[in-house]
Amino acid sequence: MTHQITIKPSGHTYQVAEGETILTGAIDAGVNLPYGCRNGACGACKGKVLAGEIDHGDYQSSALSDAEKAEGLALFCCAKALSDVEIECREVSALNAIKPRILPVRVQSMEKLSHDVMALFLKLPSNERMQFMAGQYVEFLLKDGKRRAFSLANAPHNDEFLELHLRLVPGGAFTEYVFNEMQEKAILRLEGPFGSFYLREDSQKPIIFVAGGTGFAPIKGIIEHALHKNIDREMVLYWGAKTLEDLYMPNLPQAWAQMHPHFKFVPVLSEPLATDQWNGRTGFVHQAVLDDFADLNAYQVYCCGAPAMIEAALTTFKAQGLPSDEFFSDAFTYANPVPKV
């Protein structure tokens, strides 16, 4: 059994299978709804149900409140159609030509960037290239049927290898394997690209980037893409970490700032050690932005990191004047555990 999804205001339609989420059906049909984590945590895929019956599915309450549900809002990465459904949601035209694919990759090289961050450089088969937009992510398909999602840290113009930044999660089966067992030339399977976290190039607004930990990875790709295309909008990167060693590649944004007058870098440590001899900014990274910008109405914000950081940033930035539709985020959560058949 299938149900028809109709999108307003575009009028586009597509079919979803019984038990399939509204977002998964859209991805399979080449319809580009905005989304991030695909796991009910980030809220990027939130939209309104205008008609029809849905099952909201499992999601985090921080991404969809009871009040929002009462207003007819839903997270399309979790919601499943129980009848034909009409939804109201903006579509992402820039993704029109890109559909996720499953591909094998070989581990070309591994570079330990800090005590708990590893850079992986992955090689696609010789006759393949992955088309993607800077800031999107891929999912590894594991043998037990689970998935693990990681953002691409390279820009599309530099696509000989796919670059990922993995933080070691104690007890995490996949990252423990990467850090302790995996060797160069290992073969993995992944699917991608996913996500609508990418630079909106049709805007001329100045940009504030906010990264927490390895949330720097997709933002690195976006900034490198912008600099490669000579986009001269004012840009400032706030990168938050606990201690100095957690700021795992500070020389790169420092070099961007030296080479490009319209780019500024502000590192922020929340718990600097005495041995760090840190004289820079301290506290929460989103608070540093609030301290520096009394009015965010004229800006775009691109934010990547833990869901709690993104939620705090969105709430406080909106209170300080940021339009809701100028906040773009990618929450680092577990990937959707259900593999495609």
The DSSP helix count reads 7
Q: Estimate the helix proportion, in percent.
A: 10-25%
SSE arrangement, N to C: EEHEEHEEEEEEEEHEEHEHEEHEHE
Report Rg.
20 Å
CATH topology of the largest domain, by name, is Rossmann fold
Kindly list the characteristics that best describe this protein.
341 residues; alpha/beta; Ubiquitin-like (UB roll); Elongation Factor Tu (Ef-tu), domain 3; Rossmann fold; 3 domains; 6-stranded antiparallel beta sheet; 6-stranded parallel beta sheet; 19% helix; 31% strand; disordered C terminus
Task: Write up what this structure looks like.
The radius of gyration is 20 Å and the shape is globular. With 341 residues, it is of the alpha/beta class. The C terminus is likely disordered. The chain has three domains: 90 residues, Beta-grasp domain (Ubiquitin-like (UB roll), Roll); 94 residues, Elongation Factor Tu (Ef-tu), domain 3 (Beta Barrel), CATH 2.40.30; 125 residues, Nucleotide-binding domain of ferredoxin-NADP reductase (FNR) module (Rossmann fold, 3-Layer(aba) Sandwich).
Short structural summary:
With 341 residues, the protein is of the alpha/beta class. The protein has seven helices and 19 strands. It has helices spanning 22-29, 66-70, 173-180, 216-228, 251-259, 285-292, 307-319; strands spanning 2-8, 13-17, 46-51, 54-55, 73-75, 80-81, 85-88, 101-114, 117-123, 137-141, 147-151, 162-167, 187-194, 207-212, 235-241, 263-269, 281-282, 300-305, 327-331.
